[in-house]
Backbone:
């Protein structure tokens, strides 16, 4: 493998691993804040126990997420110094905002929430957990603004002397259409992930003791958040596809392995072939007009094929291969979509059981809810593969090729050694994370202290 291949592998590995923690932090943090808010308003002791129980899972997750996030940002100077030197005037701005504002906000108020149970007033202490959630969401906003600029560069001018992009309109950076839809999609995916984590933990306890009132409450809360979040996420994801089809037509054509321009266009639930050496795939179970709807929002919308976009790029940017890995692009789209349908069906099943007041008596639902725990993480990973692979061979769409962004001072053996080190390190961190999260998730929630209950409703 070349230095470029190894550098991409290392960054993909660290980014995917880091993003396992981000949606849990945002989603589980939001649900924990809802639990504490419910306790402060009603005084129900089981909500206090659940707040502390899931809050501990949240803290473990944040600790691991911080470590892996710092490593990820250091790679811009390690493996991608040419990229950082070229676009640092734009890309560095949202990263600096994330570190100076969002990360400090999140970490400061997390500490206050952890150690302020008996030291802060109830109203202030409740505010700290909501500020933790706000900090995590704000951190994601700055990172997504930077990533969206790579997908669709806006708000910059090229320096006439250096020919490097220079940020001149920060408002456009945060009103980038790719950012607005992409960030909302990430927030909704985070709510789905956090809800599935809470539901799976609750289901495990309900399987052992169906009469546990506390975990009935957390399961109901998870389901009420899960289903609407997933439905809206599907709609927003569809709109994001339309936006990316406008600015990155190669990405959308690659997601369907559509080599020829079509109008209207069908969407294949499954197909054989369609790779670089097979431009005539066999579509199986093709849904008429669906690709047109997903890519253009029109029943008979026109979608450019990979061959047509390749010709346009050659005329605009010069000779080169601008087609991404079609296998990754095609199946990432379907893994994300098909698993989302599975999670939605399980969520609807759970809501039906809640409505019928049979959640605790169901034999099979707790098992199904436990087994869908990995699915949101696979969906999130597939979504990022779809987004980032579809941009290739660009590191910044239309401005810099990925091959031109690697550090010139490194070689393949050096980067390869880094890949091995990070692989071993992250495997160890993963083992620690799984042990800590699993061990705590299996514990009984600690009973409230005598001074914590009863609490009059709406008393502050």
Residues:
């Amino acid at each position: 493998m070349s230095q470029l291949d190894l550098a991409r592998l290392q960054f993909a590995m660290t980014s995917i691993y880091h993003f396992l923690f981000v949606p849990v932090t945002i989603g589980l943090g939001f649900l924990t804040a809802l639990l504490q808010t419910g306790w402060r308003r009603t005084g129900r002791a089981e909500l206090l126990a659940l707040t502390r129980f899931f809050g501990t899972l949240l803290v473990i997750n944040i600790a691991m997420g911080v470590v892996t996030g710092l490593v990820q940002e250091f790679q811009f100077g390690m493996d991608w110094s040419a990229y950082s030197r070229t676009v640092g005037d734009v890309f560095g701005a949202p990263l600096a905002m994330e570190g100076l504002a969002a990360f400090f906000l999140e970490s400061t108020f997390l500490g206050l929430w952890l150690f302020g149970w008996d030291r802060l007033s109830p109203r202030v202490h409740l505010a700290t957990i909501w500020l933790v959630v706000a900090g995590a969401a704000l951190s994601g906003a700055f990172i997504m603004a930077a990533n969206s600029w790579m997908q669709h560069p806006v708000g910059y001018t090229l320096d006439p002397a250096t020919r490097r992009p220079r940020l001149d309109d920060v408002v456009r950076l945060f009103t980038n259409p790719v950012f607005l839809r992409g960030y909302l999609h990430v927030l909704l995916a985070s709510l789905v992930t956090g809800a599935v984590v809470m539901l799976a933990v609750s289901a495990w306890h309900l399987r052992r003791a169906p009469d546990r009132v506390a975990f009935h409450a957390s399961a109901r809360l998870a389901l009420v958040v899960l289903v609407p979040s997933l439905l809206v996420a599907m709609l927003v994801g569809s709109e994001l596809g339309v936006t990316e089809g406008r600015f990155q037509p190669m990405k959308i054509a690659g997601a369907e392995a559509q080599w020829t321009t079509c109008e209207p266009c069908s969407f294949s639930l499954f197909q054989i072939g369609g790779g670089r050496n097979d431009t005539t795939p066999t579509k199986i179970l093709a849904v008429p007009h669906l690709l047109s709807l997903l890519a253009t929002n029109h029943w008979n919308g026109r979608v450019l094929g990979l061959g047509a976009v390749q010709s346009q790029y050659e005329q605009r940017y010069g000779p080169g291969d601008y087609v991404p890995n079609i296998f990754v692009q095609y199946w990432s789209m379907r893994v994300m979509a098909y698993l989302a349908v599975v999670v939605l069906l399980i969520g609807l099943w759970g809501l039906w059981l809640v409505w019928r007041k049979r959640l605790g008596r169901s034999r099979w639902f707790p098992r199904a809810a436990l087994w869908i725990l990995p699915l949101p993480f696979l969906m999130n990973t597939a979504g990022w593969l779809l987004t980032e692979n579809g941009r290739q061979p660009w590191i910044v769409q239309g401005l810099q090729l990925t091959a031109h962004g690697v550090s010139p001072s490194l070689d393949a053996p050096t980067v390869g050694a880094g890949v091995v080190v990070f692989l071993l390190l992250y495997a160890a961190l993963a083992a620690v994370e799984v042990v800590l999260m699993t061990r705590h998730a299996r514990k009984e929630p600690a009973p409230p202290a005598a001074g914590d209950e009863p609490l009059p409703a709406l008393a502050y």
Remarks:
- The chain has two domains: 3-157+170-243+326-445, 249-323.
- The longest strand covers residues 267-272.
- The two ends are 62 Å apart (CA to CA).
